[in-house]
Amino acid sequence: MILTLVTRTLFTYIFVLVSLRIMGKREIGKLSVFDLVVSIMIAEISAVSLQDLRLPMWHGALVIALLVLLQLGVAFLSLHSRKIHDLIEGRPTVLIANGQLNDSEMKRTRYNMSDLLLQLREKNISSVADVEFAILETSGKLSVFPKAGQRPLTADDIGVVTKPTVLATSLIVDGTIDYDKLSAVNKSPQWLHDQLIAQGYDDVKDVFYAGWDGQSLHVDRIDYKSKVKKEDPTL
Fold it and tell me: Which one of 206, 207, 211, 226 counts the least CB within 10 Å of its CB?
């Protein structure tokens, strides 16, 4: 009995994990109604499959597989047909335009004034008049664009030349060198060793993280404080 339950749990977990990966990467808050329905149904079917041991494992797996195929089919059709996309995903709704409320759209989407003002305050906007556009996205998120006079200054506004953002490459994580990434940035282990020595690290095991941004190596030391506390309760 216990072995059967463990086997079914592992099988269901792996199968659902693979199914969700096949469905694609989307944030929970950005799921469409259709995606949400499919996710809820998968969760319910998985729960029934684990609770009712009389059902064969393939029964739940087959239903989940059909749901995944249905989701992929709808996603494919939505990609190639604007009408189907709008039917499934819906369309964004403009709630504020040029500082004026679109009350008819607010009523249609059942979006009340309290919710609108709350989300504006969360974006540090105190007045509707300061908003150029506020758009209710299909995910339920409110995108807000302040008027030009209310936006913070940017480097372009004051003519400052900035360097492009560079994602650092993790060369060491938790005391372990990633030789593949080291090779990808055209650096040798000896170069990395010399860099660590220059920053006061004799042993790579003392390094929690080291990232290379193309110009410099940022290094963080492993914090042994918690280990010290366990050994000496007076600290």
Answer: 226
The range of the structural domain enclosing residue 186 comes to 169-226
Mean pLDDT of 143-157: 84
In a shared domain, residues 130 and 99:
yes
Task: Provide CB contacts within 8 A for 137, sequence distance 6+.
Answer: 92, 143
The residue among 3, 43, 4 whose CA lies nearest residue 20 is: 43
pTM of model > 0.85: no
Q: Cβ distance 57 to 46 under 8 Å?
A: no
User: What is the structure's pLDDT at 118?
Assistant: 92
Q: What is the DSSP letter of 161?
A: -
Going across the sheet that includes 100-101, the strands are: 100-101, 93-97, 131-136, 142-146
Q: 25 and 75, same structural domain?
A: yes
Higher pLDDT, 69 or 86: 69
User: Structurally, how many domains does the chain consist of?
Assistant: 3
What pLDDT does residue 227 have? 45
* CATH classification at residue 182: 3.30.240.20
The pLDDT, as a whole number, for residue 25 is: 65
Residue 232 within any structural domain of the chain? no
186 belongs to a structural domain: yes
